[in-house]
Design goal:
single chain, 137 residues, alpha+beta, 2,3-Dihydroxybiphenyl 1,2-Dioxygenase, domain 1, nine-stranded mixed β-sheet, 9 strands, globular
């Protein structure tokens, strides 16, 4: 099976969303720069020195600037896969759509230190992402 390993939600104001989730749930944030799309990484539980969760059955997440496309206005999940090209093929065979990445439509992006990432849509039009981790789980 391919587990859900991360969640993503859009923001209009990065500082405001980080303040809300910090105050409401105690989450910690790492604010990424423009080279990473001003992404805000959310730590939802205790992590080690590398930012990995100490307990199993937990996921961290992130927040991205809300795009113009309404499909990107809803929360989504990131599914870990061992081979992103094979997973892309299987998504399309099952009737889904491979949307693409930040840089190239239809092609995955390398997130430094994390792995290969790509956005997709299922047969219902719901957005999700896939990640081939740099360090296999």
């Amino acid at each position: 099976m391919n587990p859900v390993v991360h969640f993503e939600m859009p923001y209009e104001d990065r500082e405001r969303v980080a303040k809300f989730y910090s105050q409401a749930f105690g989450w910690k944030f790492q604010m990424m720069g423009e080279e990473m799309g001003n992404y805000a990484v959310a730590q939802t539980d205790e992590t080690d020195a590398q930012g990995m969760l100490k307990k199993s059955n937990r996921i961290n997440g992130g927040f991205y600037k809300k795009p113009e496309d309404p499909a990107g206005h809803c929360p989504s999940v990131v599914i870990a896969v061992p081979d992103i090209k094979e997973a892309m093929r299987r998504v399309e065979e099952a009737g889904g759509t491979v949307v693409g990445s930040m840089g190239k439509p239809g092609e995955p992006d390398m997130i430094p230190g994390i792995g290969m990432w790509i956005s997709c849509r299922d047969t219902e039009g719901t957005r999700f992402s896939m990640l081939q981790p740099t360090n296999p789980m």
